[in-house]
Design goal:
The protein is mainly alpha-helical. The protein has one domain. 70% of the residues lie in helices and 2% in strands. It contains eight helices and two strands, in the order H-H-H-H-H-H-H-H-E-E. The protein has a two-stranded antiparallel ribbon with strand order 1-2. A hairpin with an 8-residue loop joins strand 1 and strand 2. Helix 3 packs parallel to helix 5. The longest helix is centred in the middle third of the chain and has 33 residues. It is globular. The termini are far apart.
């Protein structure tokens, strides 16, 4: 299967398990491989950019959004390679900022795709749950990228404890903040960093207790009961017989 055939098979397929795996790969890589070397940093941001493109294709984003993301992905690759060659702090911040913007494009588009999928299926499926979890991971990666860009471009940095943190540190801080764990080993310093941390913590908790909780609790159920109550497939009335 060629590249075009693969893209066609994913376009609007609502295979959100693929999106979830695509998001897990760059997160795992960036946590496992230190980004002190420029090429590791470059590969990390390219992996994130590719994961976002896959999510937009699977969710059948508007062509204009896909074209914009493709252009941004090319810019990310160029700036990441230049950062790896020159070691420029500004280029590293720029590439991470662009990736953060790309990730910011994805959650809303993915949410629309999951909603469309739910309407088509008439029930909560595993793919819908996978999509919701992928959005949650995207939120953490988005805030990590934004935090890293703020830390690279701001004279005062981002953390109060570290002047030159790795992207792995930003990811670690982002997901502990998103889950409201708050170990306290890294804390935001400037006012902008604190505002971002508060926003992420609130968004993470509200999303978990509303969207993910509702989807998981209603998986495999159809809204066919009286008053639109969610009922299981076994409890749902049999469909009318087909006419000959």
């Amino acid at each position: 299967m060629g590249r075009r055939d693969l893209i066609r098979s994913l376009q609007g397929s609502h295979r959100y398990g693929v999106v979830l795996v695509a998001m897990v790969i760059p997160i795992t890589y960036s946590l496992a491989v230190p980004d002190k070397m420029g090429w590791n940093r470059a590969f990390t941001v390219v992996l994130f950019g590719a994961a976002i493109m896959i999510s937009l294709i699977v969710a059948q984003a508007r062509p204009r959004v896909q074209r914009t993301a493709a252009i941004l992905l090319v810019v990310v690759v160029v700036t990441a390679v230049l950062d790896a060659i020159t070691g420029s702090k500004a280029l590293g911040g720029l590439s991470r900022g662009i990736v953060g913007f790309m990730i910011a494009l994805a959650p809303l588009t993915l949410a629309r795709g999951v909603t469309r999928h739910l309407r088509q299926e008439g029930r909560v499926t595993l793919d819908a749950v996978f999509g919701a979890v992928a959005i949650y991971l995207m939120l953490g990666a988005m805030f990590a990228s934004i935090d890293a860009a703020v830390g690279a471009l701001s004279p005062s940095g981002f953390f109060a404890q570290s002047e030159n943190p790795s992207f792995e540190t930003y990811l670690y801080f982002s997901y502990t903040t998103l889950a409201t764990v708050g170990y306290g080993d890294f804390t935001p310093g400037p006012s902008l960093a604190r505002a971002l941390a508060i926003t992420e913590a609130l968004a993470g908790q509200l999303y978990l207790v509303t969207v993910v909780a509702v989807l998981v609790s209603n998986i495999g159920r159809r809204p066919r009961g009286p008053g639109g109550k969610m009922v299981s497939e076994d409890e749902a009335p049999d469909p009318p017989p087909r006419r000959p």
